[in-house]
Design goal:
This protein is an alpha+beta fold and 323 residues long. The protein is built from 11 helices and 13 strands.
Length: 323
């Protein structure tokens, strides 16, 4: 569980211009694009997360000698998940807890000529009502599921997921666990698929030191199921003491967008708005970028946001000089 703190988003000046938005009545916000997980350049990443979950859950269930109706590892198979329109899909925005990462400045901030946005974000969904399932997850970097740190991560995640469902659902959740344990663990499996799988990355990407904003929403075709089963969905919301409205859930599901990449592939994404106050400051590495960032902020009405020239640690400076 991450605590409330500042996080940093590395990007270009061009992207900054798109992130800062102001409508016709002067209301300002930040708008990020959360990329759908199957549109990542690394097509194997999602499958890697699923495979790690399956192997670690098999170990957990064997060591705990769990009854068959309490097991969920069997759900984590490619053929049951990939292109399954009934499951939540993770949409991801990349952030980090460091603003002085030379690797990130070079690779994600336009070769050191971009910006880093300092953002104030809550750990759980308290303000962003458009997304019922929203979390911040710090990435775990491993080569395989055999590493102990990933087993420890999954064991803790499994326990916390069950406790969270019981806490949020109250008596109804306890009744579901006692009377229909298989249904209860399906909820656990879906939650772990939505948030634990996207937090698992291969060790070769460890220089990113990434934390992820994860939105978990089914693809638009699933909205038909919601519209056709509004009473059932509403009953489920009430059972878990949620104030969500089934029609609003369906409307949110329909709001997926797409864009054509330079290589002519389609990238699916969702807009993720943040209030103006979420932007604490903008960091740059040189005077030219500072002037350009200040001009963009002024044009968009974010005059109160300061632009600061960031100083990198000496070891990171040497990395930049070698390029």
């Amino acid at each position: 569980m991450l605590i409330n703190m500042s996080y940093y988003h590395y990007t270009s000046l061009e992207a900054l211009n798109g992130i800062l938005q102001r409508n016709e009545v002067g209301e300002k916000k930040l708008c990020f694009w959360a990329t759908r997980y199957d549109c990542f350049k690394d097509k194997e990443e999602y499958l890697f997360g699923i495979d790690c979950l399956r192997e670690c859950l098999l170990n957990l269930e064997k060591q705990g000698n769990l009854q068959e109706d309490r097991k969920i590892a069997a759900f984590f198979k490619h053929e049951l998940i990939v292109e399954n329109m009934n499951l939540p899909f993770p949409y991801v925005i990349s952030i980090t807890s460091r603003n002085d990462n030379a690797y990130m400045w070079e690779n994600y901030a336009n070769h050191n000529n971009g910006v880093v946005l300092e953002l104030a974000l809550p750990q759980v969904n308290t303000e962003f009502k458009d997304y019922a399932l929203y979390r911040l997850e710090k990435c775990i970097y491993v080569d395989s599921a055999k590493e102990q740190k990933i087993q420890d991560f999954i064991n803790l995640y499994y326990t916390n997921t069950g406790l969270r469902l019981l806490k949020d659902g109250g008596k109804d959740a306890f009744d579901l666990l006692s009377k229909r344990p298989q249904a209860f663990v399906v909820f656990m499996a879906m939650f772990m698929l939505a948030f634990a799988a996207p937090a698992l990355k291969r060790k070769k990407f460890c220089k990113e030191e990434e934390t992820r904003i994860i939105l978990s929403v089914p693809v638009p075709r699933y909205a038909d199921f919601i519209y056709n089963n509004i009473p059932l969905i509403q009953d489920l919301c009430h059972a878990f003491h949620s104030n969500l409205d089934a029609k609003n859930i369906a409307n949110t599901i329909m709001q997926e967008k797409s864009r054509l990449r330079d290589d002519n592939t389609v990238c699916y994404y969702r807009e993720f708005p943040l209030p103006e106050k979420s932007l604490s400051q903008v960091l740059v590495l040189n005077n030219e970028s500072k002037l350009k960032a200040e001009n963009i902020l002024k044009q968009k009405g974010f005059d109160n946001v300061k632009v600061k020239i960031q100083k990198l640690p000496q070891k990171d400076k040497s990395i930049l000089l070698q390029k």
